[in-house]
Amino acid sequence: MFFNTCDIYLGAFLVVNGCSLDDIRLDEGHRGKPNVSFIFSGSKVDACSKDFQSGQAMVNVASFKVALIHLKDMMFQAIRENEKERRYHGNFREHHG
Asked: Residue 8 sits in which domain range?
């Protein structure tokens, strides 16, 4: 099962509970800032998401912090790569368009 969320805190909870982060997707957002989606898979994704949403989720705080930092690092790396690619394609079009 695949699960898509824009909530980085839910994402960190899923990571801590053994769900697999399959992808980070960037979509056009407001004022040029991208919307970030985290795509997860695993047999526990649905149950963990329901626990988190209901407020019944429990997690080791240190593990949660590490997972949150890891997701933030991956998110910002994806954003940097996307901006670099957009600049490259913009410059290419200016010189060859």
From this structure: 2-96
